Amino acid sequence: MYLMRHNEIQWFYPSNLNDVQELLEQPGIYPCAGNTFLLKAGLKKVKGLIYLGDLGLDYFRSDGQRHSVGATLTFNGLVRNLIRISPDSVLIKSLRSAATCPLRNRITVGGSVASFPRWSDLMGPLIALDASLELIGSQQGQVKVTDYLASPQSRKGTLITEINYSPQEWQSSYFRCGRTVNDYSLFNFTILWQINYSGQLEDIRIVLVGTRKKFRRIVEIEDAVRGLPLADCHWENLVNELELSFNQSTFGRANYLEHMARCELVRALSRIGEIPTP
Amino acid sequence: MKGRFIINKRETCVDFDSRATLLDVLREQGFAEVKKGCGEGLCGSCLVLLGGTLVNSCQVLAATAQNQEITTVQGVGNIHSPHPIQQAFVEAGAVQCGFCTPGMVLATYALLSSGKQPSETEILEALDGNLCRCTGYVKIIDAVKLAAQRMADHD
């Protein structure tokens, strides 16, 4: 027999989003699809779980104007879809290195945004791609990922149903620092850039995830180099002038992580010119 | 709570705790080939196929796996009628203590189900959720390549 546990969890299996909306209003009831984060966080306070697997939210659509990712699509599911239409996508680079193959078959995109663990391999690329979320519940409609993260109110009693981003082509690099391949990342960063025909850096976006405030969009560097010829980008100076702060953790001291992040950022930024523009 | 599971093509009704993982349910039902290892989804000893997709059964709440096809390594083949992957693992010497073997075989099965010949990188990526503390992985990778070859020849 199973060990005696606290209270029973009530399970709900809605087949449409209207039913989900009603359930979200009740305290102690949470959405559940891949359930990997729920198990990690513990089920002590959970009174009920809404299973999202029957809602058909595991889709990927692209209409040329935007890519739409259903919230219950798994990491591996998204990678399989993107490989066909956008093989250089930064999301492929980042999600392929997340967790392990069977976990990537289980972790959902929506759940990963809603929980946003400090080691997330998904959020850096989504923030850099300026993604938006479709919400239902106490807050309805579209909201930018960064606004969603900034406002705890948008997270309470809401469900992410879809993630959208522009299919605009970027060149990209993704770096993940971890003790071993399968370990949580200590920090990771995403760099997206576009170089024009005269060799100038037309646009660039840099997002570092794992800092004290979970993530940091490095606008100081973005603004300083936008429009410059690559040869005029003095990456080492720019990175050294940055204010970066990490939490002390059992995985590494804060100043060690800061030093590592600076080194890896300089390396990655210096390689921008080496990758040929398509 | 009560639930209906289809385990190795056999339908069964089970009484289970609403917080139980699929691993709990499977072991309670006597599927001892699904091993309990780390309990965190990192070692791969509890792997099963859920609706044809490779998952860590310790990371799946049983209530979410109802009415879906669940395949354990016994559903792939057994000692009387081994699958070519299992045969390849034996012949390549990829089995030592055997604790990780069910998970390794299922991860290989999931990889080779697509029908294409995997590259070494694809093999490493497919087996990145399986830990083995005995073999050093070399013979396991050899076994996967051997199985892939045999299955391609068979087709």
Q: Which structural class fits the helix and strand makeup of chain A?
A: alpha+beta
The rounded Rg of chain B comes to: 15 Å
How many helices of chain A? 12
Mean pLDDT of chain B: 96
Separation of termini of chain B?
44 Å
Instruction: Strand order, main sheet of chain B: write it out.
Output: 2-1-5-3-4
Query: Biggest sheet of chain B, open or closed, and with what strands and sense?
Result: 5 strands, mixed
Low-confidence stretches of chain A: none
Biggest beta sheet summary of chain A: 5 strands, antiparallel
Count of separate structural domains of chain A: 3
Question: What is the structural class of chain B?
Answer: alpha+beta
Characterize the quaternary organization of these chains. heterodimer
Percentage of residues in DSSP E strands of chain A? 15-25%
Enumerate the spans of chain B where pLDDT stays under 50 for 5 or more consecutive residues.
Answer: none
Task: Identify the most extensive interface between protein chains.
Answer: A-B, 27 and 29 residues
In words, what does this structure look like?
The complex is a heterodimer of chains A (278) and B (155). The mean pLDDT of chain A is 92. By secondary structure, chain A is an alpha+beta fold. In chain A, strand 10 and strand 11 (201-211) form a beta hairpin. Chain A is built from twelve helices and twelve strands. Chain B is built from six helices and five strands. Chain B has helices at 22-28, 73-76, 84-91, 101-112, 120-126, 138-154; strands spanning 2-7, 10-15, 47-50, 53-56, 69-71. In chain B, helix 3 packs across helix 6. Chain B is globular and about 45 Å long. The model of chain B has no long low-confidence stretch (mean pLDDT 96).
